[in-house]
Amino acid sequence: MVLFHSSLFAFLQSTKPSQDLDFLPQELTAYEITAAIFVFVWRQFLYLLGLGNDVSVKDSSLDNEQYVLPEIEVSMPLRISKIDLKKYKEAVGAAENQNLFHDPAQICLFLSSISEPAMLLLLGHNRCPVRPLGSVNVRNKFELFHPSRWTQQTSIELQVCEVQAKLVPETRKVKRGLEIDIQVDVINLTAGAKDVLFRQTFTMLQFMRFRTQPMIQPQPDLYAVDPTWLKDVSGTTSIHMTPASPRAWAAICKDYNPIHISTLAAKLFGFPNVIAHGNHALALALASRNNGLQNRFVEAYDKKVRVEVQFRRPIVLPTKDGLRLKSKQQSATAENFWVLQGDKICITASVNL
């Protein structure tokens, strides 16, 4: 039984900007996950002491303070099995014989969950200045480039792929800190030529104080809607999550961040109890519906599908009164979603075919 893959040990010690790992994301062991969490805790401790890696300042002038990230990339092979699909369905409460994958958003969330370990390992690289325990995931963007390859479960299982995760060098100063993008690609290897099938961009907010105030341009609310309509319980879907729910999602994506699985850790970070994984809450919500764009997904063929998700506030578990999903079809090829806890919007999302 493998306790610790040798290529991962070399990666965590390496100063090289690029590293190829020789095992699947699903094969991360409990020992390796524990080691990764220890690295995250150690990095946060060093930061508090002023000794950790920091984001490089490109221009130190007070009027033009810019930050850049080092080049770091990690690659892993990816093979999708029936076990992976079964775990995902169990995590979102779907029946084993239910085909979730006529819904483009579910394809994106599944591929995100199974490829996320590459992103987490990237954050463990000793040159990485991003602090996993001092950052929050505020937005995700998914792009599915060849939808017709994913409409049936059998086609998903046949994919022979590679996962590549890398830091995007450019950062953005915002009011509360630095926005950092991490790009994760699922690349097709079946035909011998490498083409990107799926891309996720994680946007992390790393809390920082700057010497100068960032120039914040007001952004329009892409999901603005009449609050009266949101509060209307008609046409909504209710979803329940317990404090144990995040463990089912973590079993797929390997995100065992203590704020998701430990009440004590969550309270140390200022939350009243454990909080849900944002993608998990959205996947549960979408799995409970049976309308909208998923019936048009088969017609999309090879048009690109884009899903954008914004995490507006954490979902504290348990959801005593349930989460509510509201959706509105904007056009024949676009639909928006809102996930609410009580009367507060927690997640907004859009799907565009």
Task: Summarize the helices and strands and which ones pair or pack.
Layout: H1 6-13, E1 18-20, H2 30-48, E2 56-59, E3 66-68, E4 73-79, H3 82-91, H4 104-123, E5 135-144, H5 153-157, E6 160-174, E7 177-188, E8 195-207, H6 227-231, E9 237-239, H7 245-253, H8 258-261, H9 263-268, H10 278-287, H11 294-300, E10 305-311, E11 323-331, E12 334-341, E13 344-352
Parallel strand pairs: 1-4
Antiparallel strand pairs: 2-3, 4-6, 5-8, 5-10, 6-7, 7-8, 9-11, 10-13, 11-12, 12-13
Helix pairs in contact: 3-7, 4-10
Describe the structure.
The chain has 353 residues and is α+β, with helices and mostly antiparallel strands. The chain has a single domain, classed as Thiol Ester Dehydrase, Chain A (Roll). Helix content is 29%, strand content 29%. The protein contains eleven helices and 13 strands. It has an eleven-stranded mixed β-sheet, with helices on one face. The protein has a two-stranded antiparallel ribbon with strand order 2-3. A hairpin with a 2-residue loop joins strand 12 and strand 13. Helix 3 runs antiparallel to helix 7 and helix 4 packs antiparallel against helix 10. The longest helix has 20 residues. The termini are far apart. The mean pLDDT is 83.
